[in-house]
Amino acid sequence: MRIVADENIPLAEAFFADHGELVRLPGREMSREQVRDADILLVRSVTRVNAELLEGSRVKFVGTATIGRDHVDETWLSQQGIGFASAPGCNADSVGDYVISALLLFGEQDGMALTDRVVGVVGAGNVGGRLVERLRALGIRCLVCDPPRAEQEGSEGFTSLEALIEKADVVSVHTPLIREGDHPTHHLLTEAHIEALRTDQILISAGRGDCVDEQALKARLERDPDLRVVLDVWENEPDIDEALYRLAAIATPHIAGYSLDGKLRGTEMLYQAMSRHFGLPVRKQLGQLKPENWLRRMAISRRAPPQEALLLCTRTCYDVRRDTLLFERYRRQYGMAKGFDLMRREYPVRREFSTLRVELKHSAGAVREVLESAGFAIRSPRK
Ligand SMILES: NC(=O)c1ccc[n+]([C@@H]2O[C@H](COP(=O)([O-])OP(=O)(O)OC[C@H]3O[C@@H](n4cnc5c(N)ncnc54)[C@H](O)[C@@H]3O)[C@@H](O)[C@H]2O)c1
Ligand SMILES: O=C(O)[C@H](O)[C@H](O)COP(=O)(O)O
């Protein structure tokens, strides 16, 4: 079999090369000619998978190593009898790490504890749902807006978008991009929602750029630059709006989910789905293929207050400021669109919180509880 894979899918050789010749390509420019002779196509979110790309090809299975699927015309694939799989939840916790890192940064800037702010999460699936679990475990009050879930599970515990914007201090958007149906999310955050935000609120957008009306957001920020927004996803990536970029408190090039762990999980999920599709045995597991030195450790030797310990461990693992600064460097050196994609291609290895083993030298119950709630693995003398 011939397998064409995006160059940004780690361990694709280790998982797939036994099944045929593997060709690596840059995803954004993948062309009809390049995939025509492929049997298996493995992509990321930057490749539009539709009739235009695949008509007349011999592709029998498409996998996207991502959670999002809005770049894939699933209806057309199914009409053609082409198998399809995505990687639900693969990098969900990495997005949670990103949000926690941003919340800690704002807490530090404002001299506030994490628990001083109410966080509103819009879209509570794998990403938003797990984020809410972690934040609640940290003692943070959360509001949740997810109408499809509210319809299925009953309205208790869910709130409308309008009420969430009114009551929350942080509005964190994690919806997929859905253009049709009962709950479309294209410009889910309308001009009216954006105008309703208070200057002291914080908006985080880490689902898909098109879920927020960017022109309205830009107009609001031009009038009210003190409103803080964290933008990881954008309309028209990679050629994003430079004026909006400059107005954002934190601006990153769609890397909230870019941990090595999340990406590798995505590769393994596609391997499993591909094996099922072709009736092949699942012989490989991520555990056998992971690089050495998989787990890292750190120790907290003194009696740090819980919030300080959380900040220390979070920054050891992931600091959202690093990515904001790095993005600015790439933009200056290469221009916006090229810099956006280049930073993603050369993204430094980042690990999920759960891979950091934190050794507590003192049996500090409160520190242990906070770090575990945030997702770190703890070793400490128990009382
Ligand atoms: N920035 C990143 O790096 C990054 C990483 C991973 C995922 N994502 C994006 O985040 C999206 C969500 O990921 P997920 O794993 O949670 O997906 P998911 O499918 O598990 O959950 C999506 C949730 O959104 C809810 N939803 C749908 N329409 C809604 C609406 N109109 N209003 C409010 N909620 C609505 C659904 O009911 C569901 O609970 C992905 O589709 C992807 O686009 C971004
Ligand atoms: O949907 C996802 O999983 C994320 O948005 C993913 O991290 C995007 O990464 P990309 O496919 O654009 O490399």
Automatic annotation (TrEMBL):
One of its GO terms (molecular function) is protein dimerization activity. Pathway: Cofactor biosynthesis; pyridoxine 5'-phosphate biosynthesis; pyridoxine 5'-phosphate from D-erythrose 4-phosphate: step 2/5. It is found in: Cytoplasm. Coiled coil: none annotated. Its EC number is 1.1.1.290. Residues 291-364 form the Erythronate-4-phosphate dehydrogenase dimerisation domain. Homodimer. This is Erythronate-4-phosphate dehydrogenase. It comes from Kushneria konosiri.
